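Blackboard transcription, Thursday session:
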Amino acid sequence: MNLSMLNLLPFIEWVAASPLSKAISTSTWAFAVIESIHLLALSVIGGAVLIVDLKLLGYGIRTQTLAEVARDAQKWFLSSWAVMIVTGLLLFWSEPQKLYYSTPFAVKMICLLLGTIFALTVRRRVTLAGEGRVPPMVMKLVALVSLALWFGVGAGGRWIGFSG
Amino acid sequence: MSLLPFCQWLADTSGSIALHESLFMYPLVESAHVLTLCLFLGMAIMFDLRLLGLTLTRVPITEIKSRLGPWMVAGFCVMVITGALLFYAIPVRSYQSLWFRLKVIALILAGLNAFVFHAGIDRRVAEWDLAPTPPPAARRAGATSLILWAVIVVAGRMIAYNWFDCDKQPQPRVVNVFAGCVVPPAGGGR
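(Written on the board underneath:)
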């Protein structure tokens, strides 16, 4: 399975032929620097996701309500998400053909899409509703789905580098 | 004192060769190392941001420490174990890597920063546990930690690149000295 199922080849070729793509892929440092920023944002988004999911699982901070922790984490989540997307797009721009045919990349994109939608809909509603209004089992399930999807994004991303 | 002979010996052990040449073990260990960043560094960043008064400002410092601390410690243990395995798989190149050395120095500084924090302002945490903006010494510790961990992450990622590798000569003298490259003198010596 890979993104070639979407028949995007003309787009992929247009990206590969763009000056930006050539600039990044021929530069010695550009890819490494962008990748490093991508990785730093990963640490932040990891913390922002975990702090809420741990609370949903019953292992987080106790002195504040779920809604307060979620609201606090949201700004770090959204800002690091934006950095991930911008740097991720630049990385994609530099090697679109490789990623077009990469299975780990397809897995990552599917998990990213689902994870983002889940974070902004179901998980957001459950966290803002707060304790007592949602059954504990549902809160735990939401946390596990969230963790699984973001794990898929991270693991898929790391595995792109190992496969051809 | 050079650890090069030890690293060369380590590289010749069967375990090191097996890990280095393994199809799945090495990528798995490296993935675990990178993804555990989310657990260890993610929690550490939240704590540092709290020290800076930038997040969770109404949560007591001690509450964050007692609730997130165990996750941070668990993540740190995984990072150390997987990191040691990665070094074990590629000892000589890592030892002679400019980036690896930079990472080790930053790690030591991060440890010192944590020690200074715990031995200093953290002892009087009861006085500022609830302060939305902690005292300057605590904020300094948080900022220093964030900067050092960023250096550690970036340097760690850069180890994969061979720009400054010892077998890629000529390198600027400062690179060879800092990376501990063993380079024959120019001009063949006579």
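Lecturer's comment: DSSP finds nine helices and no strands in chain B.
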